[in-house]
């Protein structure tokens, strides 16, 4: 079957999900991001690669952080950037998503960064745009958020370059997370031998073991000797339903505190995709502690998005 | 076009000696060496060893500055550029293995200026093979050859760090 993410020469054309990306493309994204990480440390933090191209951030759902990092990434590539919050404009007048996109293509937009509450929205747009237009999924419902997954993997590789010798624990709401599944997939593809998921039964998808992970319900057992602790955000709305007793109870069992972190390896790193719920999934002492790489994740997110956009813009039809 | 295939390629090790001798008088100006990936970076490193002292050394990967990005896309293997010193007001000796169209050098100079404003840039190349498409010339040259457009000259480095040149005939 045709992979909608690759062009006929096997180069990255759209980024819709991490699933379906061959290992060499994954590695190329991470290596290219490594080069862009250096650009962000220079006096002039721009390269001329996307001069003359237009990147359009199409946000059908708000996400200030994601939109901002995509904007900065596009600007550092010298692209022109337009950010649209669609919820407040055309759609409220009844325009369909494709009409919105086609109007922007008529204005010569080259790359669309799409955020939508509906799973599959970015795939849908990618299927219907002209061949020279590229689409990046910036989060579609519960389904996928590939650049977040990639920046997490990039962060792990930066701090723990020997990926063939790592224990990674993903903690929290795996069920509703749009990154956990892609991350498990990416980590396994890149050779990480042991991925653990730590969560109450109510926040785990059925048959999660089939993803090749080790399942723990007891956080203290699960964190033992891990090199990387990836905390997931607990969506506030989950706490009111039947899935969880209370925020305090959750923090007691699954919140990352200094004493629980002490069970991991002494040089373990702590990650969180943000925005954090301090005192619910993570203790401030850990979030602001020496093992936290939560802010570097944000910095690397820009390099990873620069890598993805430049690879897309350089692919053919 | 009267370019002819040279009967034999020069010995790259001798060319390194020639470059070293030409660069030595510049050391009084407190220069820094910057090699262009991959061959130029090897060569810059070697020149620093030959010149002795503690000349600052950097490397550029110009993938993000190529003028053919729109035609061929991003190189699949980029390496991070690394300039571990202040470029501002520094004399930069830009090093590459083979000077051909001049487009790589243009990209490298553009990238260098994003680190700062150098006091001066001197271009040093092991081989100038002719065929310039831009008004760029090297000040320090190991050898001048005239190669055909289809030919491709490559710098090789063996396990002991010794250099040699290899000519690939174009299809």
Describe this structure in words.
The complex is a heterodimer of chains A (317) and B (171). Chain A is an alpha/beta fold. Chain A has two domains: 23-145 and 298-314, Rossmann fold (3-Layer(aba) Sandwich); 146-293, Rossmann fold (3-Layer(aba) Sandwich), CATH 3.40.50.1370. Chain A is 37% helix and 14% strand. Chain A has helices spanning 23-39, 64-76, 97-106, 121-128, 146-159, 180-189, 219-222, 236-240, 247-254, 258-261, 284-287, 294-313, and strands at 54-59, 80-85, 111-116, 134-140, 167-171, 194-198, 214-216, 228-231, 269-271. Chain A has a five-stranded parallel sheet. In chain A, strand 1 (54-59), helix 2 (64-76) and strand 2 (80-85) form a beta-alpha-beta unit. The longest helix of chain A is centred in the C-terminal third of the chain and has 20 residues, at 294-313. Chain B has 171 residues and is an alpha/beta fold. Chain B has a single domain, classed as Rossmann fold (3-Layer(aba) Sandwich), CATH 3.40.50. Chain B contains four helices and seven strands, in the order αβαβαβαββββ. Chain B has helices at 12-23, 39-51, 69-72, 103-113, and strands at 32-36, 57-60, 91-99, 120-128, 140-144, 152-157, 163-168. In chain B, the strands form two sheets. A five-stranded parallel sheet of chain B has the order 2-1-3-4-5. Chain B has a two-stranded antiparallel ribbon with strand order 6-7. In chain B, strand 1, helix 2 (39-51) and strand 2 (57-60) form a beta-alpha-beta unit. In chain B, helix 1 (12-23) packs across helix 2. Chain B is globular, with a radius of gyration of 16 Å. The mean pLDDT of chain B is 93.
